[in-house]
């Protein structure tokens, strides 16, 4: 019972995520949004003309409606002289309104109601079956599986063209790729996937299935085929997870799948390698920590140089940094504060060396007043490498002092 | 002209007041939408619109009240949160704008559906009526509801009237406006906030799915008739008023019909007519222009200097 509903949702999700990946990388997500609303009148007209839901005629009607959406968008954009997103907004609201109106007016002749247009009737999928080779299979599952097969096959056959057109349409056209046909093929694929999903999960969830898995996958991996694979996995996972969660909490399965997709996207935003919030946050934190520690070391070194006792107090982070340095054996605690150990002294010297070299170099080459040299040096002291320090030293000459008259410590390996 | 026509249908007083309120909403949505379409943000309201459902359901759940003001206040919070989420996604991820919009839109709508279905399944009082926020249903509005919608719309129009010069500047050249010392980002945010407000007060009339049309279609239709901003906003407002008024009247005559699709199709009808007959931009004008220069048009090639 539940098995067929979950299986149908998973197959729908896989089909949507497959074409959705190309939509997202081609920046056509909003067109996917528009198509998933606008196929409604196509479906309704086909049903009014006598097709049964799930028939090829319904798929045809929906595909025509999808192409009409694209045509209407183009017409309003070109003829009306408004931005493309405005024309998308005009096209899909108008077509969706026509669809809703047709459904309402035709009344009992169509067993669709405005609610299930928006969020589907997945719960009823297992009850509407057809016999295939003597086995009763849900009709929605069959049509979704058929669409998945067609879409995957089409994508596999035209993969190189699709990728070429997606990333450089102008070059693809120049190289003889029929880019217009490639785009139309993609849009037909989108409308097929949309229709397969429409009855089961509704218009809005189709948008979620088209766009969100690919958007999440794109954050996690970089190569297109991996994005595609991961998007399909995420979508299927959301279909299964969403169904189970909806069953557990007694609410709409389609809505819950969209919510699970949203959670997957949020997790992707957090854990993405390099660009993820966690990765970026921890990199920032690690950097800030290194700067603090190096500042402490340099302060101790300067205190040693001027033979004044280093202030042991300081704000919390500074005290924590000193503790950390002690744990690492870079400094040791004394009765009135901290003292550099050999390893800490070597590192501190390089930080101070970077700082003073930079001040000296700026003092010579940039027309800055002396009291403006410190801030840039305070920042760059954490970033200069040994080679750059040596080049600066060569430029300055061996016995240079910094603009405040302090000695520049030598390079230590 | 319009009034006798309505009275001829014998509509009750309440319907007339609601029609006036929704007409005000349509007008204000057209005016505010005009600026947002010119700014190239036509669909920024769509994500907010779908998200309102979460707020409406949340407000009912939190307060137990189902007065329109409370529900719409919840919707506004959710709409603003959705717009804020979009800004955050834009700032912190490499997801592109279109995918970000579609993501926020569909996920927040899903959440709204989850809340509403869950509440209906548990028999939370008043939750069944929330479905009217999906596709709009003005028949359930009271006169005081309509007054609220009208007042908010009037306030929105007043905002546009006060800040028209600034908004025009930012709409046409945000970079220049910022360079010239205008608070371009703040003006932008006010504009986005106004769109969110209009999307929320448009909910009862058009519903979460179609309310975007109220802020997109009238300005696009108005664009066909003029190249100047004040007439554009005025025409968009008029189209919104007429579509809203007629939409309420039609849907009160046919109570099964959700109001949203009717209002949207009326506005789309205006657009279709405009695309054909508008002077200079319209299909007819272009077709005639291609047929040859008008007899009284000055000719550049004839060599006569008049």
Polypeptide structure, described:
The complex is a heterodimer of chains A (413) and B (306). Chain A is mainly α and 413 residues long. Chain A folds into two domains: 2-271, ABC transporter involved in vitamin B12 uptake, BtuC (Orthogonal Bundle); 281-396, Arc Repressor Mutant, subunit A (Orthogonal Bundle), CATH 1.10.10. Chain A has helices spanning 2-25, 29-48, 56-80, 84-106, 114-119, 139-157, 159-167, 169-174, 179-201, 203-220, 224-249, 253-271, 277-306, 316-327, 342-365, 374-380, 386-396, and strands spanning 129-132, 135-138, 331-334, 337-340. In chain A, 49% of the residues are buried. The mean pLDDT of chain A is 86. Chain B has helices spanning 2-8, 13-38, 44-63, 68-92, 97-121, 132-135, 143-162, 164-172, 174-179, 184-210, 212-223, 229-253, 259-277, 283-291. Chain B starts with a helix and ends in a 15-residue tail after the last helix. The chains are: A mainly alpha (413), B mainly alpha (306). Chains A and B meet through helix 2, helix 3, helix 4, helix 5 and helix 10 of A and helix 5, helix 11 and helix 13 of B.
SSE layout and pairings?
The complex is a heterodimer of chains A (about 425) and B (about 300).
Chain A: H1 2-25, H2 29-48, H3 56-80, H4 84-106, H5 114-119, E1 129-132, E2 135-138, H6 139-157, H7 159-167, H8 169-174, H9 179-201, H10 203-220, H11 224-249, H12 253-271, H13 277-306, H14 316-327, E3 331-334, E4 337-340, H15 342-365, H16 374-380, H17 386-396
Antiparallel strand pairs in A: 1-2, 3-4
Chain B: H1 2-8, H2 13-38, H3 44-63, H4 68-92, H5 97-121, H6 132-135, H7 143-162, H8 164-172, H9 174-179, H10 184-210, H11 212-223, H12 229-253, H13 259-277, H14 283-291
Helix pairs in contact in B: 2-7, 2-10, 2-11, 2-12, 3-4, 3-5, 3-10, 4-5, 4-10, 7-10, 8-10, 10-11, 10-13, 11-12, 11-13, 12-13
Q: Secondary-structure element sequence of chain A?
A: HHHHHEEHHHHHHHHHEEHHH
| Low-pLDDT ranges of chain B | 302-306
Q: Given the C-alpha coordinates, what overall shape of chain A results?
A: elongated
* SS content category of chain B: mainly alpha
Instruction: Write down the secondary-structure element order of chain B.
Output: HHHHHHHHHHHHHH
CATH-assigned fold name of the largest domain in chain A = ABC transporter involved in vitamin B12 uptake, BtuC
Would you report the number of β strands of chain A?
Answer: 4
* Quaternary structure annotation: heterodimer
Whole-number average pLDDT of chain B? 85
The greatest inter-chain interface is formed by: A-B, 63 and 61 residues
Using the coordinates shown, work out and report the CATH topology of chain B: ABC transporter involved in vitamin B12 uptake, BtuC
Q: Assign a percent range to the helix content of chain A.
A: over 70%
Task: Please name the CATH architecture of chain B.
Answer: Orthogonal Bundle
* CATH homology superfamily of the largest domain in chain A: ABC transporter involved in vitamin B12 uptake, BtuC
Provide a count of the helices of chain A: 17
What form of chain B results from the Cα inertia axes? globular
Give the class-level CATH name of chain B: Mainly Alpha
Instruction: Detail the poorly predicted runs of chain A.
Output: none
Estimated radius of gyration of chain A: 32 Å
- Helical percentage of chain B: over 70%
